[in-house]
Amino acid sequence: MIEVSQRDEIAVLTMTHGKANAQSVEFCEAVAKAFNDQRSSAARAIVLTGNGSIFSAGVDLPRIATEGDVYVRRFLPALHRMFEAAFYCPKPVVAAVNGHAMAGGCVLACCADARIMARGQGRIGITEILVGVPFPALAFEVMRYAANPQYLADMTLTGATYLCDEARTRGLVDEIAEPTELMTRAVTVAKTLATVPTATFVATKNQMRQPVTDHMARHGARIDAQVEEIWTSAETLQSIRAFAARTIKKN
């Protein structure tokens, strides 16, 4: 599900889970492991990207629709661990957004220290509300951290998705690159971030993320308990099934 390659001192993690890099329990575990493995590797920084035309289409909704509440109770903690491993990775992380990054795919990209999106290759946005599910606690805090504050409410409550220029305005991406230059630029940015002395980078990154850490310590468990209750309700599961059916039919 994750291919690991090397460009000089940069580790490149390429998500290769089917056409859409849909986030299942197994996918989340694989991404989390890949990031955690890099903590002790010789790599100075990490680039995360997807295969094909999609970065990640987000949660594997058909899987939830089929397996129901028992699966959701396994999935939500795995999703949390994936975001946690990416967001708190002590090494510089650059997301090379090669195509669509929807819902959890957008959140995963926003876990990175820098996000570069290929021009004309897809859309990015947080579509959870259209599915009928609330954000898990860490997922929402990642978006609060990354997005430009004046756009957060609109993005969250409308579920809109954006092309690269609009996405940059809203803080979902930092740079735009031509598709043929995406990986080159991502590696260059990663190398630049890697020039910062390790201890200084880690301390600064932790300081920047401290509000997320504090909020999760105070409220994370309570919010996630409520989120699990909603995600596993019969009403929400029906909403997920309906959305998945519409999406699959449309595609």
Architecture overview:
The chain has a single domain (2-179), classed as 2-enoyl-CoA Hydratase, Chain A, domain 1 (Alpha-Beta Complex), CATH 3.90.226. The longest helix has 34 residues, at 198-231. The chain has 10 helices and 9 strands. Helix content is 57%, strand content 16%. The chain has 251 residues and is of the alpha/beta class. It has a 6-stranded mixed sheet, with helices on both faces. A 3-stranded parallel sheet has the order 4-6-8.
Outline of the structure:
The protein is an alpha/beta fold and 251 residues long. The protein has ten helices and nine strands.
List keywords for this structure.
9 strands, three-stranded parallel β-sheet, six-stranded mixed β-sheet, single chain, about 250 residues, globular, 2-enoyl-CoA Hydratase, Chain A, domain 1, alpha/beta
How large is the share of residues in beta strands? Answer: 15-25%
CATH level 1 class label = Alpha Beta
Point out poorly predicted stretches. none
Here the CATH topology equals 2-enoyl-CoA Hydratase, Chain A, domain 1
Strand order, biggest sheet?
A: 1-2-3-5-7-9
Shape category: globular
- The separation of the N and C termini measures 23 Å
Major sheet summary line:
6 strands, mixed
Number of domains: 1
The tally of helices reads 10
Level-2 CATH architecture: Alpha-Beta Complex
Helix content: 55-70%
| Average pLDDT for all residues | 96
The string of secondary-structure elements, in order, is EEHEEHEEHEEHHHHEHHH
What is the CATH homology-level superfamily? Answer: 2-enoyl-CoA Hydratase, Chain A, domain 1
User: What is the gyration radius calculated from CA atoms?
Assistant: 17 Å
Number of strands: 9
Class by alpha and beta content: alpha/beta
